[in-house]
Each structure stands twice: as structure tokens, then as C-alpha cells.
Amino acid sequence: MTDQCDIVVVRRPGQGAFVEEGLAELLTAYHLRTEAEKGEAVSDVSGLPERYRAEVLGPRAAFGDGVVLVALSGYTAVGCLVVTAPVSGRSEIKRLWTDPAFRGRGIASDLLGAALAHAGESGVSTVRLSVWKWRSGAIALYERFGFTVTESWDEREQLVCMERAVGADAAV
């Protein structure tokens, strides 16, 4: 659990412009870092591929029926995660990111735990995700939460696909 001095996880933030702006900043940092790690560094949002730019500029529209979780420290968004709407009993976790200044406080674990709880409440039987193979810390976190590597559903090289069951028989 997080060293909870003042970190709170909220669902589908409609609580104010500061949350929306903070979410956009987190998504920007996530995408810029990911592009740089892939060797395709860009300097700002305008250089991102269109689908990622759309997430940054309009997260509410980009994630549609999905649930966006945001970790807040006071009025500052410090972490985010998206759970897609269920399709055929399965949801996907996307965009797990914690502001580097707030890492090591359990925020990613809290976001992941909240995502799995939401999936369970939604009647989802399986949650899946993909992660770049060089993000060993994230992979270790997912494994601690019971995710296992599975056959890839994505053609991009160096992407690890993982999944886990959700429900009464699955430990969170």
C-alpha cells in the first residue's frame, strides 16, 4: 500500500480542470518517454503519432467508455492508468504511469489494484496488458499482481503481452 500521506486514486476524473490538465501532462510524459525509449524521440506533443496525440489532447474522448484512474497528491495528478471497456469478458490495462518525482511510494501498485478491483466489479473474467520488454520494473510489478506472459496479440517487436484472471478465484 502507498505511504498514503495524501495520495488518493480517483476514477474517471470529472472533478475539475486541474485533474484533466494533470492527466494530459502525465500522458504527455508517458508518450514522450516511450517514444524516446523506442529510439524515436520527439520534443513535444506535436511530434507524437496521431493516436497518442489524440490521447493527450482529449483523454476523455480517446478512452471513451474506459475508466481512467488518476492518483492525486492534493491537486496534483501524480499517476494514471486506463482500463478499457470490457469486450467479450476481457479488459485491457493501458498507460500506467507515475510521475518520476513520486515513484517508490506504491502509487503504481495502488492504481493497478484499483484497476483490478474495477475489472472485478465490471464482471470481467480476464485483464490483459502489453509492456515494452525493457520496462523490467513494470513487468516485475505485473508479475507480483499475478499477470503471466501470454501469446502476443500485437505485432510490434519487443512488446510483452501479459494477462491474468479476475474474479472470485483470482487473488488481487
Strand order of the largest sheet: 1-2-3-4-5-7-6
Structural class: alpha+beta
Biggest pleated-sheet summary: 7 strands, mixed
* Count of discrete alpha- or pi-helical segments spanning 4 or more residues: 5
Shape: globular
In terms of DSSP E residues, the strand content is 25-35%
Average pLDDT for all residues? 88
Q: Would you summarize the structure shown here?
A:
The protein is of the alpha+beta class.
Keywords for this entry:
single chain; globular; 172 residues; alpha+beta; seven-stranded mixed beta sheet; 7 strands
Describe the protein.
- Helix content is 33%, strand content 26%.
- It has 172 residues and is α+β, with helices and mostly antiparallel strands.
- Strands 1-2-3-4-5-7-6 form a 7-stranded mixed β-sheet, with helices on both faces.
- Helix 1 runs antiparallel to helix 2 (50-57).
Q: What is the element layout, followed by pairings?
A:
Layout: E1 7-11, H1 17-37, H2 50-57, H3 59-62, E2 67-73, E3 76-83, E4 90-98, H4 107-121, E5 126-132, H5 136-144, E6 148-149, E7 159-165
Parallel strand pairs: 4-5
Antiparallel strand pairs: 1-2, 2-3, 3-4, 5-7, 6-7
